[in-house]
Every structure is written in C-alpha cells, then in structure tokens.
Amino acid sequence: MTESRQEDAPRTGNAPGEPTTVLAGGQVLTPAGWVETDVTLSGGRIASVSSAGSRAVGSVIVEVGGLHVVPGLVDIQINGGFGHDFTQNPETIWDVGKRLPEHGVTAFLPTVITSPEEMITNAMGVMNEGPPGGYKGAIPIGLHLEGPLLSQIRSGTHDTRYLRSPTAVTTDAWSPEEGVRMVTLAPELPGALELIEALAEQGVVVSLGHSNATYDDALAGFQSGATVGTHLYNAMSALHHRDPGLVGALLAEREIVAEIIADGIHTHPAAVRIAWEAKKPDHLVLVTDAMAAMGMGRGRFVISSVDVLVDGTGPRNADGVLAGSALTMDQAIRNLIAFTDCSLGEAIATATANPARTIGDPGRGVLEEGARADITVLGPDLDVELTLVGGTITHRRPS
Fold first, then answer.
1. Which CATH superfamily is domain 2-66+367-396 in?
2. What count of other Cβ atoms lies within 10 Å of the Cβ of residue 380?
3. Is 282 annotated in the active site?
4. What is the pTM assigned to this prediction?
C-alpha cells in the first residue's frame, strides 16, 4: 500500500482546490458486490466509486491493489477497551475511540451498564459535550444503555443493587437528541411494554435482553416497538421445544435483529451457525460486548463496579460469570466466517450495513456515492491495513 499525489491526470468535477483522496485499485465491496475500482473521497463523503476520471490533479492517491476495501465497521455494543470502562469513566469514550480504528471500527455505541442514575447522566453529559479539540478516531453515535431495566434472574454480571423497574424511572431525557441511541431492557417487567412504546416514539432503538421473558412476553415486546435482541443466547431465557423463550422468539421472528458475540466463548460455533442460518443475511449483527480488557491481554479489570479476571476462558467475575468480552470487531468477522462458512461480503455486512440499518443510520455501513467516507481496508488475511473516518486516515498498519 503506497501513497502519492497525482500531478498530471485530467481533472474531474470536484470544486477547485477541494482536497480529494483516492483509494486506488482495491477490491471494493459495493451494494452490487465486489468490484475492482477506485473510491474517491472528498469533504468527508464518498464522491465516487469508479475508476473513470478518479485521479484528479492534486489528489492523494493511496494504492490498495490486492486489498479489500469495505465500509467502516460499526460496533453497537461495547463497554470499553484498552484499560478503560465507559460506565465508570465516560470521559474515556474518546480515548477508546482513538484506538478503535486499529480494529477497523469507525463508529460505535458506547455502552453503559446497570449503575447509579448519575452515571448514566454523566455519560449523557460527555456525549452532549462532544469530543476534545482535534479528535481523530471512531465516532460515538449515541449511548447504548444496557440496564438498569433488567431481570434479576438474568442480570449476569450486572450489579443487582442498581436494577430498576420501568415504573420507577424517568426516561423522558432518553432520546437521540440527548445522546441515547439504544436501550436494552427486559419486556416481562411491570410497565416495560409502555416504556418500549414511549422510547420507540422518541426515536430510541429498543433491544430485549437480560430477560427471563417467555416467548409470548418477547412477542409483546416486539409488538410494542422493540426491534433487536441483545447478545443472543446470553443472559436470556433459553430455547426449549415446548417453551421457546426469548432465544426462540429472536430466532423465529424473521424481521427482528439479533446481536451476537462471535468469540467462541459466549457462543459455541455451532450456536453461531444456527443463528446465521436463522437470521442471514440482513438480521444478524456482530457486536463485541468488549470491556476494558480488550487490547490488554490477561489480568484484572473492572466493568462498572464489578471486579473481573481475564484469563483463557474470557472475562469473568468472582462467581465465574462472563462479564463482557475481550473480542475485537475484526476478529469477530474472521470468527464468523470460520464458524459459518459465510462469504466475506456476508460477514462484512453483519458489522457494517446491518448495524447501521438497525440503529437507523443509513449514511454509514455502505460504500456508495454520498455516503460517509468511513472505510476499512483489509489485507488478504483480513487484518486491518487502513482505516478512514470521514475521509481522514486514523489508522495505518505499520509496514
């Protein structure tokens, strides 16, 4: 991969003096499939996906021949990473965001788990304040509140002291305008269905999870406006042939999106394969559910108020319960292909177009004219070679 400035090619229709970058000669994942072509970027957007007249005078040419050019990855459930926890320290959203492009991520939903109400308020304040000056990194496009409206029985590693009933919280401020994009809750709780309706009307994506819901409870949640299931199989009522539970509802209801943590720890490869067959190609979304240990190796960490030990079996609390993951999005893609034998294009969609569509952000997750210039370039082994956010290079793999 080389970079140069074009000096003698004919001009295109770009405005005089407008800087452009051309990713030249890569295998580009377009809505129509893979095409060997150029991608021209200008003003933070994709100006064209075409080799015709793409190399204007003054353009920065980045040669990506032999590499896969795909939309930037979108992670809609991530609790932290690189030693940082968003619930405890929401200011570290920007520290983590700076490094997520190392793994191809260009947009994410910082996830705040069950905690005192002021911690949610603090995180909303950080989102509303915006990034520090000169910030270059993945874009946090709204909070994912995973709790406190969860089942005591299926709370997982969430601190049960801070669980709340939907009838005991005020959620008027939970809106995209105030920094909240997604909420996970248990639909069987008293008042949950009314709250799902209210949140959906406010433009919040509602996901069912950490729930002991029956199949009928889950259907009622979907009918009230929930459209997603949080980390399929984990922290939810299991599938039984006479009692399908939330797992059965998520697998059976074709139009409902299921998140999945494809790390081989939270979900056995066979379970990932079952989910793929039930939800492909548009309704399965890869998430990392990563916590502070991501990118850090083994050791002791914290998620919210919970101490976590990370070893070869994943992050676990003192009771041995899984507490998030150390998974990265690029590894999740490689795992999905290995577990299901899906195509590269199908796997990429579960981390790009599918999550973008799920949270109502069609300007991301696709490589076409007018879309955001959020782009990930993958090598032959699907390692991240280059990441661009809004047309700016935010990560380049060392030669």
1. Urease, subunit C, domain 1 (2.30.40.10)
2. 9
3. no
4. 0.94
